[in-house]
Write a structure and sequence with these properties.
Largest sheet: 5 strands, mixed
Distance between the termini: 39 Å
Order of helices and strands: HHHEEEEHEHEHEH
Strand content: 15-25%
Number of strands: 7
Number of helices: 7
Length: about 220
Amino acid sequence: MIDKIDEMGEDHVGSSAKTPLRADAFDISNEEKRKRIEASVRDILDTLGMDLDDDSIKGTPRRVAKAYVNEIFGGLDPANKPKLSTFDNNYKYGEMLVEKNITVYSTCEHHLLPIIGRAHVAYISNGNVIGLSKMNRIVDYYAKRPQVQERLTMQVVQALQEAMGTENVACVIDAKHLCVNSRGVKDIASSTVTAEFGGKFKDPAVKKEFMDYINLDTIFE
């Protein structure tokens, strides 16, 4: 297994659109998870030679554990999934609706370093509409996991397709990965763009209209 990981090196490796969770992921409570993570972080800092009796750092293991379970990786817990209520499209709006520049804060699952960027999400109604804030919330929910950007993009689209009962959903994410920007190649200028197009968005003309809306019309032509 170690040889396989070394062989992959810095390559960006993904598995599927499904987050790789064990079947027993929720058999222990969040409180127990926080206790175990706190102990693990304490061991890491101690191994690095940090003085855990120092006032500045002695609370770090607990703070990290709380942040991991409650915030940074809170999207792993299905109980935190936002309710995606839909409504009848009574005003018969038939064009695409685009929610631009949704903030993305996620964590690369390969190095546990931040992914920071913007998501652009669109749909074309087939009879239902969804509250605008729900689009932001579903991005945030799936971002709060150890992630790869390709999977995050697909999960956002699939969740909205299921909620709205239509394939006509698209998502583009443009983000910086600190595993690239702050370590390894240390390229602070580059960003990664991923896209998932469903239903009518696969049509080149509709796709171009969406990309024009978000000022990325030269990508994915």
